[in-house]
Fold this sequence. Notes:
79% of the residues lie in helices and 0% in strands.
Amino acid sequence: MTKAKQPQSAHLQRQREKILSVVGRLFWEKGYLATSVDEIADVAKVNKASIYYYFPNKAAILYEIALMTMRALIDQAVSIVDSNLEIERKIEAFVSNHVRFSLNHLGFSGIGQMERRNLPPKLLRTYVSLRDEYEGIFRKMLEEGMEQGRFRLKSSKLTSLFILGFLNSFFQWFRPTGKLSSEEIASEACVFISNALIPEVLRIEGKGRQDKVLKATH
């Protein structure tokens, strides 16, 4: 009996994912308010009743897409925090992951940022709580660097908001067909933020240690 249900369950999951993929693209290209459920059904090639089978209304689809992005970013950030990397490498990994994920998933990553005002109050509070959790994880990394004397910052809170605001602006101008790839932009962002966080004297000391290691291995 269980085996008989599995194909149907897999089909339902594929249908749901297909709808979310179509909605992500439509919301990104046209905006939430300009996209109708009828249009979603037409582009996804399903009947309108199928949309409502998976989601009670259009706001619920927006909520699902926004949360998918935040949960994915949080999962990546937690694994970095829990790693044994030096704090500078943690920051680089965080920045690189954030940029690459955002730019490689344009149909999803920017929607929460641009369309969250259209969420009902209760759903908006849940989204904001996840966004704040993500910011808190990054702030914890900055505070770790401050405690180690690696970062000389006056406020970890303001610094985290400055940096995340900077990173979240990329999706507004990035074009997949542009000259720079998401990897190249992520690399440049890491250099820019590293130079902003780490005092020049510490960067020189760090380079000196790296040079000694290279000489010792040759």
